[in-house]
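Suppose you are handed a protein chain with no further information: no name, no annotation, nothing but its sequence. What can you learn? This example shows the usual starting point.
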Amino acid sequence: MKIDREFWQKPQNLLLSMTFVMSFLFATWQVLLNNFVIERAGFTGVEIGILQSLREVPGFLAFTAVFVLFVLREQTFALLSVATLGIGVALTGLFPSATGLYLTTVLMSIGFHYFETMNKSLTLQWVDKSTSAHFLGRALSVKAVASLSAYGIIFVAMEWAGVDYLWVYLLAGVAGLVAIAVVTIGFPRFNPAVEQHKKLIFRGRYWLYYALVFMSGARRQIFVVFAGFLMVEKFGYSVGQISALFIFNYVFNFLFAAKIGRFIGVIGERRALLLEYSALIVIFLSYAFVTNATVAAGLYVVDHLFYAFAIAITTYFQKIADKADIAATASVSFTINHIAAVVIPALLGILWVTSPGAVFLTGACFAVISLILSLNIPSRPEPGNEVLVGHVRSALAQKA
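A reasonable first move is to predict its three-dimensional structure. Written in structure tokens, the prediction is:
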């Protein structure tokens, strides 16, 4: 028993355990959201845009995580963040009004974004470069299992048993709090291999990584905010149907995400991202003009499948980064990722009222820009070989 316990108590398993709890909680919040806000709070595209913009504010402020590290270890901070997410989810169903949903969403989002920041930092520190793409694929598989568990429970509870939104949110949040308490007790404290900088770091030689992260945040909003909203508002999908779409998506991730991670490790970050963004251009153009509910669902599924290829942005950074920069740069990169995320949902929510198709045409433009940026990634990125064009020498980068 002691040997089994020691075998299990590895940093990688801690990361996967926290990821499972976080994903279960967030999946519960996300899959119910569009139906909940329309049925109980009377949201239109304007209100959902505001809510999603508010949800991204904690992500925009993720750079503050580096200052929290003066007080908390990264591991402790990550665990507390998941607990905060659980509290936010538990409270969501109790406040079915615009103001209530805005407040509970911000609380939930604080936990979600701080965890994602710490999780990314710890992963890049604890997992070797040679296996990080595969590990990140495994993490997506774990997210898929957690999400599938949430969707399956929700489908049975709401479609068959008629359980109210309030109780689904409350019970999921409490279950998450209990689970993260068990994880906290079950793992020892792990020491960092390299002491991390506890200050904001913005290096010139990372500029392409920052640009890719920024555009990734812009592209993500189109899918997260408006693709699901399209399913409900335009095509009248129910909670059960939305859950079924999510279940299909995550079954694919469970089966293939780790293989995609290994595939990225073989073909390299440049080719992986070129493949992703080429596909997204076609997908967003199709979203703009779709009129058939089944075709829209197919686009939704295919769109989600390419999420795994975003692993390549993270592994690209790991290959060009100084080890001591990882925690600080993870914080800064999340803020960069959410600059667009804070503004875009509200602006496109207003555009949605007059032209939903124009929202997805905007997404196609984001994908084109990302494709152009990806062309600048070297086939073998490393310190000193970060880009093909626009190279910033390390000496200059240290002053940046």
